[in-house]
What does this fold into?
Amino acid sequence: MRKITNNSDYPGFLLSCEEDLLLDSGKSINQFQIAYQTYGLLNSNKDNAILICHALTGDQFPAEESPITKKKGWWDLMVGPNKPIDTNKYFVICSNVLGGCVGTTGPNDINPKTSKIYGLDFPTITIRDMVKVQKILIDELGIEKLRSVIGGSMGAMQVLQWSATYPDFVKSIVCIAGSLKHSAQNIAFDEAGRQSIMLDPNWHQGRYLEINQKPENGLSVARMIAHITYLSEKAFQNKFGRNLQEKKNLSFGFGIDFQVESYLRHQGRSFVDRFDANSYLYMTRAMDYFDVSEEITNNQKKIIDNEIRFLVLSFTSDWLFPTKESREIVSLLNSIGSNVSFAEVVSDRGHDSFLLDEPQFFRVCEGFLKGIK
Amino acid sequence: MRNDYKIILDLIPQNSKVLDIGCSDGELISLLAEKNISAQGVELNQEKVISCLGKGLDVIHGDINLIVEDFPYNQFDYCILTQTIQAVQKPDVLLNTLKKVSKNIIVGFNNSARLSKIIKFFLSGSYDSLLKKSNSDQWYNTDYIHPCSIKDFKKLSLDLNFKVVSTYDVINAVQFNNGKIPSNLFCKEVLFHLTNE
It folds into this structure.
């Protein structure tokens, strides 16, 4: 049985499903819920719906004020009335991913079998599992074809997965700063982050919530490591240089001397307030396991028959998901004969460029969506 | 409509797959689409890329010299380079790679050795007269780094083991077959249809 209600914890809605969800690992979850938010109105033909897939630390609130941070949503520059993803025209859906910590079932929820918090009893999930859950939501909303599925970073993985697994249900795909598979370097960074969490004595083998603790230091260091990969050498240099933090002289100690240290620590600390450490483990693992090339090739016929249009985007200074990897996506999509466009946006702000004010990037996306009939 | 586009539209059969290198704002791709020919563009200028996307056209942003290796082999029936070959870093290398990507290649360019140009060159004593595409182009800043004649290009085609299917005097819309080419002295704009078979 499936039921949609208002979400009592956050703005937006909750789709509760009383059914088994079989996962790629072979394990299943008995009941699950999907927290989502929508913007704009679904037209009577139900053909103006756009699904936005969020990145690792995103949530279902891309637009307007975020109830989590009380600041503008993570993609407020992109999504809203008269913005590139124009909510006057499109019905925008965004759901928290499976394994997340903002309302969709994840490791910090109660396991119905044991009535205890899942912790590490939560099964390992994949990007395909995340997309499977999104597909259930789209079915429940009665949408037979999404105008577009759009996402950056981990969101880009989800959109490619959509094209591979559900090619009959999408008209177009916008894949931003993504890759066909997680690189060795990216897996390495993920592992450093996970080790940082799991070596925190407050992690307690993932059972920290039961004893009302949090591996704050571990999660915060994980975030600091990751945050470095989201920027670029030039972005750090432009923003901080070697400027000292509220002092004129070096301290000859290990406190905060440089502004960049203060910034990173702040990034780490503020992240702990809004994100769950176990979710971080599960979601980075899902990214590590991602490799969609074969499934895209296998579903070549359906991708072609449905005339799915792809837009692949990268940023010049992104070294986490460099242009080379986007070109590999384009190359694969070309080799199966699909309709693919590609643009590389000049920006020196690294991987995070897709979340920042990059007018060229917005215009490319807006132009592409305009061309989808 | 541009004369060379007219010839290209007549030349390419329906349902072909086409790669248009240096597609600008996608005019030719749109025209091909009307004929039920699916074409993908390659364009270096981002504004033009955006313009193509807005029209619902498929376009790859980038420098063909750097990205040609990304295209899978035998993916296209026709590859078009109009007013582009003289601006390519290494035309021979590019054509050799495109040979693997596309069965047919159509190359259109302005004949740099036509009499009017030679006279201008002779009288002015300036190389600019040979290179010039727009008035701001000078020998040191022009994109047109490989001016060539019709004879030059035919020789390159044969050296690269292409078969010259036909050539066209674009302005006068005259077709030449059996290895014949338009007048090297008088033809302003030429189109080569090459095949690797």
